[in-house]
Amino acid sequence: QMADPFLYDTGERSHYGCLGHEVQIEHIKAYVCRPSFSTDKAVIVAHDVFGWRFSDIRYIVDLIAGHGYITICPDFFKGTKPWTPTDHWTDFPDWMKNHDPMKVDKEADVVLKYLKEQCGAKKIGIVGFSWGGMAVHHLMLKNPQLTAGVSLYGIIRDSEERYHLLNPTFFIFGEKDHTISLDQIFLLEDKLKQYCEVPYKIKVYPGQVHGFAQLKPEDMKPDDKPYIEEARRDMIDWIKMFV
After folding, report:
1. In sequence order, which residues have a C-beta less than 8 Å from that of residue 108 and are 6 or more positions away?
2. How do the residues of the chain divide into helix, strand and coil, expressed in percent and rounded to 5?
3. Cβ 110 vs Cβ 74: under 8 Å
4. DSSP for residue 214
5. Among candidates 158, 241, 229, which has minimal Cα distance to 201?
């Protein structure tokens, strides 16, 4: 029996009333939240395995929008069923085969076009969590239209092609994440030093497990709260620096 890699409890979560709205863009739906003033800066949020409707992700979208960005979370699963907390981990590898975080280019292009043509966005960044963190790492290697990326605890796939980032990318990890070892993180750092020609940053947050940075305030444990808040500030600071 595979251990549940998401150590936070997704069943007993507080309700969240969203600030944004849903839109249909070509073949996908998306959740959009706009700031109170007009701006030509936007951020795409890549959700985790629980999909674009998960309240934690919507909370993050609204949070980023509050910092002055048109923020959008598209359904990268294209209407297929996201992973749910009641699914069995033995089925996870099969589910992942049909939900490959490296196959997000088409959806990213659709959303970039929408942001530029419908929302007047000139600079666009991307932030992703877990499954979405892997998607961000992939897109920052492939899509020059994304001016900055933040990948939060995206499992690291090691190969030579993974280090030539096109634009500034920030990697956030939890020290106690049992899906990503510290050895993998050190290797990533080492390889980026060798190959990467744009600004990058790697930061590990003490005592934090996989999924730590997307918790809503009322779901945080007091010991973790300072690290969660720090990770969010760091994420926003990176976006503000480059987008």
Report:
1. 44, 126, 139, 143, 146
2. 35, 20, 45
3. yes
4. G
5. 241
Read off the pLDDT of residues 202-236 as tens digits, 9 standing for 90 and up: 999 999 999 999 988 888 899 999 999 999 999 99
pTM over 0.85: yes
- Asked whether 65 and 19 are in contact (CB, 8 A), the reply is yes
Domain 22-242 sits in CATH at 3.40.50.1820
Tracing tokens 């390889």 back to the chain, one arrives at 191
Tokens 């987008």, residue located: 243
In this structure, are residues 166 and 185 in contact, taking their beta carbons and an 8 Å threshold?
no
Residue at token pair 């939060």: 152
Residue 184: both structure tokens together: 């993998």
Say which DSSP state 208 is in.
Answer: P
Distance CA 234, CA 7 (A): 23
Q: Is the dihedral of CA 215, 216, 217, 221 positive or negative?
A: negative
Q: Which two tokens stand for residue 70?
A: 């048109």
